[in-house]
Amino acid sequence: MSGKKLSFTEAKTLSIIDYLASAGFQPVKIIRADHWYYSPFREERTPSFKVNAKLNLWYDHGTGEGGTLIDLGAKLKQCSLAEFVERLSQDVHSFSFHRQPPLIIPQENKLEILAVQELNSDDLLQYLSGRRIMPDTAKKFCKEIAFRIRDKAYKAVGFQNRSGAWELRNHWFKGSSAPKDISIITDGSKKLGVLEGFMDFLSLIQSDNQELNALRDNSDFLILNSLRLLSRAIPLLQNRDVNLLLDNDNAASEAKKALIDKGVAFKDASGLYLSHKDLNDFIVSDYKNKMTQSLSKTKPVKLRR
């Protein structure tokens, strides 16, 4: 293949394990076809980056991302897929890759969970109030999380995923602890509501909209926490009465197409809040409208003299 530009198909057949070795990364352990590495994208003590030699695919358990050699190379090199394939074509004749320094998040920038307790912080409850989430609803499903980044400690509203890590939110911070994963709230129902984030889930729980209530009642819930984790959810959507309450944006539209391609049947409920970005935005806007109407009705009438 010397001197010839690789096609995407040809590039995908090249060994990810060999590519990583050429870049200076060696597996920490090998279990049958699975080669486990310390992630090339961050520092960590436990290897969470897996390459399946048989499938020639990689998966990062810390972020929920994965794919082929092209996806990995483009992420490492911070370039487009096409640009990486072009770079790969220049080196593949010797299969000697020049090492690109990995994108390492310094140890001091890592997010560390310090404590988990009941949600009582006035600042966090005020933040939730601004999102029109009532304290009783939040306290039922969320915790108050103390966490540290570098040498500074902070607090956030925490919503736990199925792997035990936390989605974290406060006035200024939107992030998560590792590993990133979906969240599941189940009571054994065949009916399943699927939402992108936990603010949308909390909004649905306390909604007084009749159509939304019909979707909520007697339902299990799956919160993706990121559309990137949709592939993890697909096995859980089979043979369920699925109601999608995703955002009204292009990414959600692509997710719906992906579900259709996978043969997943669902009811798209996003039309109930079509003029809004997401379900929480709809709840906030609805509250403001009701407050405006209420103030209008109680406005004193000036008497003529």
UniProtKB/TrEMBL annotation:
<dbReference type="InterPro" id="IPR036977">
    <property type="entry name" value="DNA_primase_Znf_CHC2"/>
</dbReference>
<feature type="domain" description="Zinc finger CHC2-type">
    <location>
        <begin position="38"/>
        <end position="89"/>
    </location>
</feature>
<dbReference type="GO" id="GO:0006260">
    <property type="term" value="P:DNA replication"/>
</dbReference>
<dbReference type="Pfam" id="PF13155">
    <property type="entry name" value="Toprim_2"/>
</dbReference>
<dbReference type="GO" id="GO:0008270">
    <property type="term" value="F:zinc ion binding"/>
</dbReference>
<dbReference type="Pfam" id="PF01807">
    <property type="entry name" value="Zn_ribbon_DnaG"/>
</dbReference>
<dbReference type="InterPro" id="IPR002694">
    <property type="entry name" value="Znf_CHC2"/>
</dbReference>
<protein>
    <submittedName>
        <fullName>DNA primase</fullName>
    </submittedName>
</protein>
<dbReference type="GO" id="GO:0003677">
    <property type="term" value="F:DNA binding"/>
</dbReference>
<dbReference type="InterPro" id="IPR034154">
    <property type="entry name" value="TOPRIM_DnaG/twinkle"/>
</dbReference>
<dbReference type="GO" id="GO:0003899">
    <property type="term" value="F:DNA-directed RNA polymerase activity"/>
</dbReference>
